[in-house]
Amino acid sequence: MRRFLLLLAVSGLAIVLLACGGDDGNSAETFPTTSDPARNIPPDQRGKINIVVAGSDFYVGENNFVFGITDANDLPQGGATARATFYDLSDPANPKPVFTVAAVQSAPGVGEEVRHVHAGGQTHIHGGQDEDRVGYFTPAAFDHAGPWGIAVEATLKDGTKGVASVGFEVYAKPNMPAPGQAAYRSDNLTKADVKDIHEIDSGEPANDMHDVKIKDAIAAGRPLVIVFSTPAFCTSRFCGPVNEEVEYLHDLYKKDVDFVHIEVWRDFDKKELNPTAREWLIWPDGSLREPVVYVVDKQGTIYDRWEGPVARNIMEASVKAVAGGATR
How far is 22 from 71, CA to CA, in rounded Å? Predict the structure, then answer.
């Protein structure tokens, strides 16, 4: 039985937590053996941290994997150093370590407050978010579908050391559009299509990423960045900060790259989705993930994708690449 825990709030850090199925032999408590870091650890490092998977659409191929770290009291932890080992759990009795990689912190909205002046003259303060409300990204290439696990060795900013593990599912193919696939030629609404900008942007003030239709950017051979988020209604509390990070990149790269914000909800109270969000984000089972950021190259192919708490330090290399003409 496959079990999904969606949009689980952990001490204010709302994330998408995926628990993978089969039977209890695939649980985080039982998959590690004495040969891996989650079991072979000093007693004083046990129970010091917890790991929460902050994405869900992991598939065979290259992925941007994201997780959160909490302490023994389930309080989110930023500023940690972390190393992740990924395990093949095809045989629950014999977990197989496959690869190990260092994680990079992604802290959307964290840092000194900066006043950003929008095209309409409105001022928006960026930064100042909780420095512990972060994610940790690693590249992860999975060679087969099924149950996998991650064990993280972390040192928190106060010096606490700990190891924890959790299981997750890898799909045979992505459930949302993914790198290497053609981007949808969406006819999204722009500010020219509406009387009130807040029809297509729940943020206050609205951002400056509502001038371009996705289909027009692709037809013109313009690379673009698309951020799907709902700043006023985001369950994960990451949408506003992620938007800020994309806006920062917009200001740096708008000469060579188009930027599009797609508000997830047409009518939040009625749970009516924006058609473009439905086109891109809905899984085959009808569920929804957000926020999600896409980078599309000049040929209209998806170049990169991130789910969850992504910040500029994670995204900028791909944005800079497509700005310079790189293609997938």
Answer: 28
